[in-house]
């Protein structure tokens, strides 16, 4: 028989406001096995943990039930406290009476009754708990960074500098990401290329970093400390090891109709191309959809002019298999497609552009050589109107409900840069709110208004009307309580930031969780902001939520520190809550083998003594190093042979009984 | 195919041509319009107050009658369509309005929003099909450049009316193409003409109406078509522009193309 202590936490007023603590404490005293029941304002505090340790000593406790917040929050805390008091950590159970009770119920009597039921369920389980001892597993001293933008580069560089091997996988033909497309960066207006490209070079030259561009992660198995990953390197159709990057192939390529993605489709590129001059690697790639050779079999001009004989139309995708101790997700973002925002005429009018398109127009290496020109006729605009929050803070269902966070600052930047370079151009900005928190950010925005004379109008735009070769922007001025109509030559839309399309698939591969907007969920919104709930998977940059470059870099370095902390360990304690097959009950049906997502179950022939006779039986065997304790096998086992340590069938039935009592 | 038909008051008076051409065309297309026996004026303005029940009752009666006949309720006038469709939505989504309205109703079975409200254009698109309409045209309006004038009532609120994309509608353009004419896309086709304020602020109504005309002229329209008697009146009477722009009802040109 266990000697169980129950500790009910108030969590300040978080639990105590909705649950009558005393009722729970008293109710637990009459539960089987409970020898001690008490409460405290903050069980997780040092004093609370001290109370637990004292009670273990005083009452000779063998099992502990903590009625408090989610086990995600403090299970580890209380297991450590139990261990320090001499109780096996797996003799601790948490009854979640905060997230699953006090926070979601208003009626005090109902919440209290539910807290009692949840607590006695945990008591019923602890009665059947057995001490468990974790095993150990090795740590592969290599990290994988998925995404080669500024977030991924920073994480990789920091990990590499700490002395560990890192691989970067980037799906585009070059590293650099979105930041490579930017002209100048707020709030200092230093040029993006000047601060990004050296980092790209650092990464490319670092002895601890390998870069796989034009590559995607295809398969992931394993667990923290030991992930097995398959990477598909898409065929570039150019041999990277012998190409000198001379660019002759691109000059001669007759296929000129592909939209240049790097310049946001404002001009065309060839079928064989390097995305931009500072690309790494400086090796072209053939766009097989556009290439005349691939489409018709005729041409092959690039191969003929190549002095190094590097063009290879037969090249196949390459497969790289590698093991990693940790994975950093740095998949970044793209901007929301504005095809469906018909009121702004984005799809119909070439002079209605997105901010990222303006970024390319303003860039000296962009399609206009850095001159501000209208895409429709190549003439200089006299008036530019910016519209913020296009698709952000949008509750119509067309866009995103969240604030994209960076648009207020980059719009102020664009407005200021235009007024600086072209003082004769009128610049207006429509906004819902101007949100510029951040170091030197609000000062930056004030400068746009006060020093550069940018006209800020609080209100949204209802319609952009093409009229007599110009654009009439109709909107409301909420401060003036009037309708305004501004004549513009260029309308710039700050389209919402959206998680990259690859995020969802990678979340499935890595069992990392995502929110309704496909941003990766952090393990704890405040205390574990760079960790995914899946052990060994870390988050870097906008893939976790909209953020600007300083924040991205800070988060990328934080994620790197977490990776380095993990890789610096030689052994990891493994989860002892794993499956085990009872060989005498196993019928050899193979259900468990089929359902196991980790490939941890295999079948062996074993001689067993049954009813006094020796028999050879085919039975399930769990590989303890691979099993993750998901419990899928226990559910499909028809003979009841599979059981999960720490969550045995009898424990779960005891919980159900206690719930239904 | 038989529809219960709700013509509305204006179609019996000022907008008689909208109604009559609509009936002739439907008959020629094999669509039977069965006018409701005892319909009442829809009120022409949708009541925004959630506690205003009386102005909703005529719509509920028409809807319930169609339900009893197991038919869809067909409308033609934009204002009637707007009011009846929104009241139907209220009945479907607002328990309080539903219960109160039903307490004023005769008959045993409470009306729960069962009836589908179909605009004449939706009937042409979804029941007949624009491809089929094109086949039935006897005198195609070849060479005519027609600007579709949607106005506001058919399109908004977008989710309730679910008529077409409010920012970039296409149903009238498809209709014009089916008639053999060329649709003219112009920016103000989905903006309000200001007709509702024509009594209170005639100048403003004139300005908004003229804006529609100017915009259509700039983009090369020979004429406008509409399904709304108030829009037609406002554009025709209040609108002033350098050049005259005739405004027709959708059914007038349909009847002409069908030669009925």
Biggest sheet layout of chain B? 4 strands, parallel
How far apart lie the N and C ends of chain A?
21 Å
Order of the strands making up the biggest sheet of chain A: 10-7-6-18-29
Oligomer: heterodimer
List low-pLDDT spans of chain B.
Answer: none
From the alpha carbons, calculate the radius of gyration of chain B and give it in angstroms.
Answer: 18 Å
Structure characterization notes:
The complex is a heterodimer of chains A (661) and B (260). Chain A is α/β, with parallel strands linked by helices and 661 residues long. Chain A contains 18 helices and 34 strands. Chain A has 5 domains: 4-126, 3-Layer(aba) Sandwich (Rossmann fold); 142-233 and 317-332 and 500-567, FAD/NAD(P)-binding domain (3-Layer(bba) Sandwich), CATH 3.50.50; 248-305, no CATH class; 337-497, FAD/NAD(P)-binding domain; 579-644, Alpha-Beta Plaits. In chain A, a hairpin with an 8-residue loop joins strand 13 (258-259) and strand 14 (268-269). The mean pLDDT of chain A is 95. The model of chain B has no long low-confidence stretch (mean pLDDT 95). In chain B, helix 5 (120-128) packs across helix 6 (130-136). A 4-stranded parallel sheet of chain B has the order 2-1-3-4, with helices on both faces.
Short key terms for the protein model shown above:
heterodimer, A: 661 residues, alpha/beta, Rossmann fold, FAD/NAD(P)-binding domain, 5 domains, five-stranded parallel β-sheet, globular, B: 260 residues, Glutathione S-transferase Yfyf (Class Pi), Chain A, domain 2, four-stranded parallel β-sheet, 11 helices
List the helices and strands and how they pair.
The complex is a heterodimer of chains A (661) and B (260).
Chain A: E1 4-9, H1 21-29, E2 34-40, H2 46-59, E3 63-68, H3 71-84, E4 92-96, H4 98-102, H5 108-126, E5 136-138, E6 142-146, H6 150-161, E7 165-169, E8 184-185, E9 190-191, H7 192-205, E10 209-212, E11 215-223, E12 226-233, H8 248-252, E13 258-259, E14 268-269, E15 272-273, E16 285-286, H9 292-296, H10 301-305, E17 318-324, E18 326-329, E19 333-335, E20 352-354, H11 355-362, E21 383-390, H12 407-421, E22 426-431, H13 441-450, E23 455-458, E24 461-467, E25 470-477, E26 482-488, E27 490-495, E28 497-499, H14 502-510, E29 537-539, H15 549-567, E30 571-573, E31 579-581, H16 591-595, E32 601-610, E33 613-622, H17 632-636, E34 642-644, H18 649-660
Parallel strand pairs in A: 1-2, 1-3, 3-4, 6-7, 6-18, 7-10, 18-29, 20-27, 21-22, 21-27, 22-23
Antiparallel strand pairs in A: 5-30, 8-9, 11-12, 12-17, 13-14, 15-16, 19-28, 24-25, 25-26, 31-34, 32-33
Helix pairs in contact in A: 1-5, 2-3, 5-18, 6-7, 6-15, 12-13
Chain B: E1 2-6, H1 16-28, E2 32-35, H2 54-69, E3 73-75, H3 78-93, H4 95-103, E4 117-119, H5 120-128, H6 130-136, E5 145-148, H7 158-161, H8 171-178, E6 182-184, H9 202-218, E7 223-226, H10 229-238, E8 247-249, H11 250-258
Parallel strand pairs in B: 1-2, 1-3, 3-4, 5-6, 5-7, 7-8
Helix pairs in contact in B: 1-11, 2-3, 3-4, 5-6, 6-8, 9-10
């Amino acid at each position: 028989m266990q000697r169980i202590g129950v500790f009910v936490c108030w969590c300040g007023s978080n639990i105590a406001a909705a649950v009558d603590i005393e009722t729970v404490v008293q109710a637990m005293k009459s539960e089987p096995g409970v020898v001690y029941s008490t409460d405290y304002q903050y069980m997780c505090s040092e004093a609370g943990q001290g109370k637990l340790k004292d009670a273990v000593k005083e009452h000779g406790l063998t099992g502990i039930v903590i009625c408090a917040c989610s086990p995600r929050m403090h299970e580890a805390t209380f297991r450590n406290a139990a261990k320090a008091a001499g109780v096996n950590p797996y003799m601790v159970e948490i009854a979640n009476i905060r997230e699953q009770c006090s926070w979601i119920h208003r009626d005090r009597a109902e919440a209290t009754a539910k807290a009692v039921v949840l607590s006695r369920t945990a008591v019923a389980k602890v009665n059947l708990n057995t001490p468990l001892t974790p095993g150990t597993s090795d740590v592969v001293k290599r990290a994988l960074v998925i995404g080669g933008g500024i977030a991924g580069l920073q994480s990789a560089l920091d990990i590499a500098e700490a002395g560990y091997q890192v691989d970067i996988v980037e799906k585009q033909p070059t590293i650099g990401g979105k930041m490579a497309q930017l002209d100048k960066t707020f709030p200092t207006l230093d040029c993006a290329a000047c601060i990004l490209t050296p980092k790209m070079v650092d990464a490319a030259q670092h002895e601890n970093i390998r870069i796989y561009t034009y590559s995607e992660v295809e398969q992931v198995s394993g667990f923290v400390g030991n992930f097995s990953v398959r990477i598909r390197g898409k065929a570039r159709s150019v041999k990277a090891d012998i190409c000198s990057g001379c660019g002759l192939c691109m000059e001669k390529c007759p296929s000129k109709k592909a939209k240049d993605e790097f310049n946001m489709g404002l001009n065309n590129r060839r079928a064989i191309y390097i995305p931009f001059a500072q690309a790494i690697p400086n090796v072209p790639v053939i766009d097989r959809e556009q290439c005349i050779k691939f489409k018709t079999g005729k041409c092959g001009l690039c191969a003929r002019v190549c002095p190094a004989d590097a063009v290879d139309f037969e090249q196949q995708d390459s497969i790289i298999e590698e093991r990693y101790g940790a994975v950093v997700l740095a998949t970044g973002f793209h901007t929301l497609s504005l095809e469906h925002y018909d009121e702004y005429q984005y799809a119909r009018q070439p002079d209605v552009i997105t901010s990222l398109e303006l970024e390319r127009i303003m860039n000296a290496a962009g399609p206009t050589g850095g001159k501000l020109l209208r895409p429709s006729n190549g003439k200089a605009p006299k008036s530019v109107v910016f519209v913020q929050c296009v698709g952000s803070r949008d509750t119509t269902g067309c866009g995103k409900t969240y604030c994209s966070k960076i648009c207020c600052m980059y719009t102020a930047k664009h407005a200021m840069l235009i007024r600086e370079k072209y003082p004769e151009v009128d610049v207006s900005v429509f906004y819902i709110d101007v949100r510029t928190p951040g170091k030197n950010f609000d000062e930056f925005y004030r400068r746009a208004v006060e020093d550069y004379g940018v006209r800020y109008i609080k209100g949204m735009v209802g319609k952009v009307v093409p009229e007599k070769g110009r654009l009439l922007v109709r909107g409301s001025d909420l401060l003036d309580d009037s309708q305004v109509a501004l004549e513009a030559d260029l309308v710039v839309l700050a389209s919402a930031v959206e998680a990259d399309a690859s995020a969802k698939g990678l979340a499935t591969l890595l069992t990392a969780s995502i929110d309704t907007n496909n941003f990766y969920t952090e393990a704890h919104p405040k205390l574990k902001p760079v960790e995914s709930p899946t052990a060994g998977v870390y988050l870097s940059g906008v893939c976790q939520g909209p953020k600007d470059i300083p924040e991205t870099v800070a988060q990328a370095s934080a994620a790197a520190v977490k990776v380095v902390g993990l890789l610096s360990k030689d052994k990891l304690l493994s989860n002892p809550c794993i499956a085990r097959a009872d060989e005498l009950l196993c019928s050899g049906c193979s259900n468990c083998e089929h359902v196991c997502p980790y490939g941890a179950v295999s079948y062996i022939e074993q001689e067993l003594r049954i009813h006094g006779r020796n028999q050879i039986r085919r039975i399930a065997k769990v590989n303890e190093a691979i099993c993750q304790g998901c419990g899928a096998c226990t559910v499909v086992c028809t003979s009841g042979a599979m059981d999960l340590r720490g969550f045995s069938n009898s424990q779960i039935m005891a919980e159900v009984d206690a719930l239904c009592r | 195919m038989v529809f219960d038909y709700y013509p509305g008051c204006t179609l019996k008076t000022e907008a008689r041509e909208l109604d009559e051409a609509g009936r002739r065309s439907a008959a020629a297309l094999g669509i039977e319009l069965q006018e409701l026996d005892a319909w009442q004026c829809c009120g022409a303005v949708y009541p925004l107050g959630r506690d205003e029940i009386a102005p909703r009752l005529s719509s509920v009666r028409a809807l319930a009658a169609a339900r009893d006949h197991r038919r869809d309720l067909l409308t033609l006038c934009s204002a009637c369509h707007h009011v009846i469709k929104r009241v139907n939505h209220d009945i479907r989504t607002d328990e309080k309005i539903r219960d109160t309205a039903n307490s004023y109703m005769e008959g045993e079975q409470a009306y729960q929003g069962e009836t589908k409200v179909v605009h004449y254009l939706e009937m042409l698109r979804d029941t007949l099909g624009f491809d089929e309409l094109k086949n039935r045209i006897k005198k195609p309006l070849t060479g005519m450049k027609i600007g579709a004038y949607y106005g506001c009532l058919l399109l908004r609120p977008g989710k309730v009316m679910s008529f077409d994309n409010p920012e970039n509608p296409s149903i009238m353009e498809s209709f014009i193409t089916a008639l053999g004419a060329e649709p003219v896309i112009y920016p103000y086709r989905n903006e309000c003409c200001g007709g509702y304020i024509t009594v209170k602020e005639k100048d403003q109504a004139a300005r908004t109406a003229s804006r529609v005309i100017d915009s259509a002229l700039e983009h090369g329209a020979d004429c406008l078509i509409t399904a709304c008697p108030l829009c037609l009146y406002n554009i025709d009477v209040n609108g002033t522009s350098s050049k005259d722009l005739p405004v027709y009802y959708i059914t007038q040109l349909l009847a002409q193309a069908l030669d009925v």
